[in-house]
């Protein structure tokens, strides 16, 4: 909890509500002390984060270390929010899982081929609301 | 370089131009395979990233491993940008360095006490422009 009057910790429900309103987040991975950060398209549903991606360095990192961090923020004139979570990322391979992921209806910014789904199951999350 | 017609790699100058237009970025750190991501207020000047922060977990992480990643993005209806860089973060301790950092005029979202300056010197950076 924060002791500053203009910062409030969000409840878990509020945190999921913020995640549900956004489609762009940032995924961070770490392999051998080397850290990477990727902007990603995502959908939040059933208390999981689903990310559509193309084969590349993101997947290579996650195959080595599935412990990831994920962030979303929203900054307005007088109000800002941030959500950070840590969790386990899996590359979805089973048809049932991929069907669930596709049911999110997630589109990507470009209509390019992003055939791989990641699912992040949070192990810790926090959200904060800032007013000024 | 991308082979997709609607994705263009930014030049280094364009990348700094995008960084110069923003004040909120995301800093990722890694210690022992554990990754953290923090939304931060920043200023880009003289080809360095300056971040104002308060004592806390961010600084503890950087004291252990100063190799960080940093990200900024901007998403509009038809155009989006992202910039990702990797670099070495230092906690500024010398008066001259702190004077340089303060000269950026960086404000934080809240007028709270954030007395510590970080300076990130990029070792690799990339920027992309997406149109649809």
UniProtKB/TrEMBL annotation, chains A, B:
Q: Which SUPFAM superfamilies match?
A: FMN-binding split barrel (SSF50475)
Q: Which InterPro entries match?
A: Pyridox_Oxase-rel (IPR024747), Split_barrel_FMN-bd (IPR012349)
- Name assigned to this protein: Pyridoxamine 5'-phosphate oxidase-like protein
Name the Gene3D superfamilies on file: Electron Transport, Fmn-binding Protein, Chain A
Organism, scientific name: Xylanimonas ulmi
Q: What is the lineage of its organism?
A: Bacteria, Bacillati, Actinomycetota, Actinomycetes, Micrococcales
């Amino acid at each position: 909890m924060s002791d500053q009057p203009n910062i409030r910790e969000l409840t878990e429900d509020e945190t999921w509500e913020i995640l549900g309103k956004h489609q762009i987040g940032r995924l961070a991975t770490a392999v051998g002390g080397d850290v990477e950060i990727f902007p990603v398209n995502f959908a939040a549903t059933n208390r999981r984060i689903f990310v559509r991606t193309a084969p590349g360095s993101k997947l290579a990192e996650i195959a080595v270390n599935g412990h990831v961090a994920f962030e979303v923020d929203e900054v307005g004139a007088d109000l800002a929010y941030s959500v950070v979570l840590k969790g386990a990322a899996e590359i979805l391979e089973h048809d049932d899982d991929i069907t669930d992921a596709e049911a999110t209806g997630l589109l990507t910014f470009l209509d390019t081929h992003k055939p791989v789904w990641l699912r992040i199951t949070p192990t810790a999350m926090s959200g904060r609301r800032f007013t000024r």
